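Appendix C: a fully annotated inverse folding record. The material below is reproduced so that readers can follow the format used throughout the book. The structure is listed first as tokens, followed by the designed sequence.
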């Protein structure tokens, strides 16, 4: 997807709590028909080549909405984001819903056919995997806990994220 003018990028994971890029404006919002899931392997951020961590991707889920934060960015910011999310993610066009409006935008999604996709597993297994993983960007558990805190601060609930967070916090005790 080519971007030639300031464009909204929708964050549903680390973009919500880690903005290492300039943006013109940010707004809470949601996308429809998607759910976030810890189903993508991370070889370069929260794990390693030999021991990948688990990070988020979007899974098509009719009738569900995924809440997050959108950032209006200049086109060159996508070069930085493409590099940051190079391990299996691609840009997908989405409609982003704001409180009283809607805008076209872009989201990063790792599809089930990418080389690093791990897919579903029991929540206890995913939690253990997250607790045991670490990569160049830090602990895999930090990625989850930061996300859960950011969603809570926005007044958003996400069953998948919060169930994993309580399991991970119990394992870390
Ligand atoms: C995000 O926060 O939107 C995001 C999640 C996974 C990969 C890239 C971006």
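Designed amino acids, in order:
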């Amino acid at each position: 997807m080519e971007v030639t003018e300031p464009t909204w990028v929708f964050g549903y994971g680390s973009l919500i709590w880690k903005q290492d890029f300039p943006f013109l404006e940010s707004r809470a919002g949601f996308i429809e028909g998607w759910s976030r899931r810890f189903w993508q392997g991370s070889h370069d951020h929260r794990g390693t080549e030999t021991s990948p961590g688990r990070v988020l991707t979007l899974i098509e889920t009719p009738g569900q909405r995924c809440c997050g934060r959108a950032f209006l960015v200049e086109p060159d910011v996508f070069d930085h984001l493409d590099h940051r999310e190079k391990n299996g993610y691609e840009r997908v066009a989405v409609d982003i819903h704001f409180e009283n409006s809607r805008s076209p935008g872009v989201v990063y999604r790792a599809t089930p056919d990418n080389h690093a996709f791990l897919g579903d597993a029991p929540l206890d297994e995913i939690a253990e995997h997250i607790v045991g993983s670490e990569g160049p960007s830090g602990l895999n558990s930090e990625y989850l806990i930061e996300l859960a805190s950011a969603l809570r601060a926005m007044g958003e609930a996400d069953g998948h994220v919060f169930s994993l967070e309580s399991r991970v916090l119990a394992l870390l005790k």
